[in-house]
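Thread amino acids onto this structure.
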């Protein structure tokens, strides 16, 4: 394919100014490599607009000239949705300079933020206003709100607060034509026609560019307790979850399941991580919060654990003695994915099944994995409370990574066949991007794919928005 004409690149650069139009390979490099190293892209230009008007002018010019645009936030995505292809004809649009928090409204419990605000920054600003923004991810120190919304991010707070879509009340979106949809409303009830914002949330930048959003805030819990629990099996963990849900209700704010091997990897490879407990095949990280007091949260978690012991569901447990120990428990949980890297190649699955089906899924998926690679190591962990598991498969000890990665497609098929047998999803919180596009097209209902294509054609008839992703 012919490269983009330099005169056209100059026109794009003029919109943002020379200092924010990156052209040198060293400046571009951070924008064309993604965290897992599965894809690398090529682009002649990275544009870093300062405001909505500049985004609008960029997309208008892109539509007029048929120039593909790849929106990018913090570049933490795991399915390649933020990467340009290798043609050198796609321009990267970085939202990182749209980084203002426009308003915190404590009476309405909302925060209006631009897309380039880093998630952890937003959490801290909410905290300073004595409010909680509950979206919490391992990449929260670098991921950005626009990317969180575009991928409908999940994380550890979904059980109590919902995913990114459920935390969003309104959006500001620039369409491929350059038109701006200003729907930054704070309304919790609004039945005036189609809910347009939800077309853009989770669309991975294929329909338009989210430039700002109104997000929900919550009162900060007055008390919070965290326990690390050893259990014999996923079935025991499921019954413990049911017990905790009954007793704590909405106060159950996290319930994370972890296989022992995942914990072992994290302790082995992440400095400072230590095991809270030894000798159990599975572990649960449970968090209970109270809007009344720390004593109330403590009484509730002790009551749940006491009943869990009596019922034979919990084998052993440690309640965090202080904030530092609670943070250490969470740090151990959040580092599980990172700690797989030193063990060699891994084939990862971000899946969801009905919560009640988790034990059966884990048992059946284990057999499916063994049928592809008998010595592969299953590293399973995730958000048991909402049915989302990171079902990762690490290479056998002593095997060359390249050899194991040749099994990527048959391993994916084996695991995803079990997911579909339980009416689950092959993408729970990471999105489709490039990684799962072909499988989505091959396995989703034909009418569903057709409707998505109609939506895409209606919003982006020129096909400039993040081509080759999702659909």
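Threaded sequence (471 positions):
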């Amino acid at each position: 394919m012919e490269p983009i004409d330099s005169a056209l690149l100059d026109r794009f650069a003029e919109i943002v100014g020379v200092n924010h139009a990156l052209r040198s390979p060293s400046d571009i490099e951070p924008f064309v490599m993604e965290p897992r190293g599965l894809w690398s892209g090529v682009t002649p230009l990275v544009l870093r607009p300062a405001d909505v008007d500049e985004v609008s002018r960029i997309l208008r010019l892109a539509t007029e000239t048929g120039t593909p645009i790849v929106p990018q936030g913090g570049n933490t995505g795991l399915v390649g949705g933020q990467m340009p292809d290798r043609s050198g004809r796609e321009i990267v649009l970085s939202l990182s300079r749209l980084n203002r928090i426009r308003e915190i409204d404590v009476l309405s419990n909302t925060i209006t933020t631009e897309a380039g605000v880093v998630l952890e920054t937003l959490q801290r600003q909410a905290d300073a206003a004595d409010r909680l923004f509950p979206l919490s991810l391992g990449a929260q120190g670098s991921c950005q709100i626009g990317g969180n919304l575009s991928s409908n991010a999940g994380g550890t707070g979904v059980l109590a607060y919902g995913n990114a879509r459920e935390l969003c009340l309104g959006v500001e979106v620039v369409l491929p034509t350059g038109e701006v949809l200003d729907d930054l409303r704070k309304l919790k009830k609004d039945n005036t026609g189609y809910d347009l914002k939800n077309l853009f949330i989770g669309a991975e930048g294929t329909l338009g560019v989210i430039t700002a959003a109104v997000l929900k805030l919550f009162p900060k819990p007055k008390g919070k307790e965290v326990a690390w629990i050893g259990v014999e099996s996923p079935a025991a963990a499921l019954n413990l979850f049911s017990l905790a849900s009954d007793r704590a209700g909405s106060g159950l704010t996290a319930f994370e399941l972890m296989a022992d091997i995942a914990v072992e990897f994290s302790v082995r490879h992440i400095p400072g991580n230590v095991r809270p407990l030894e000798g159990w095949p599975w572990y649960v990280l449970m968090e209970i919060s109270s809007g009344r007091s720390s004593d109330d949260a403590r009484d509730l978690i002790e009551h749940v654990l006491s009943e869990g012991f009596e019922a034979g569901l919990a084998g052993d447990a440690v309640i965090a003695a202080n904030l530092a120990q609670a943070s250490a428990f969470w740090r151990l949980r959040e580092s599980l994915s990172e700690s797989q890297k030193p063990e060699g190649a891994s084939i990862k699955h971000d899946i969801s099944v009905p919560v009640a089906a988790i034990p059966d899924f884990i048992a059946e998926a284990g057999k499916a994995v063994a049928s592809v690679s008998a010595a592969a190591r299953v590293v399973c962990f995730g958000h048991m409370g909402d049915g989302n598991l990171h079902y990762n498969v690490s290479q056998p000890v002593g095997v060359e990574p390249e050899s194991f990665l040749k099994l990527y497609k048959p391993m994916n098929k084996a695991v995803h066949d079990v997911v579909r047998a339980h009416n689950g999803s092959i993408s729970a919180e990471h999105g489709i991007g490039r990684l799962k596009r072909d499988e989505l097209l091959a396995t989703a209902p034909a009418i569903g794919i057709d409707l998505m294509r109609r939506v895409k054609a209606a919003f982006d008839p020129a096909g400039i928005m993040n081509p080759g992703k999702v659909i």
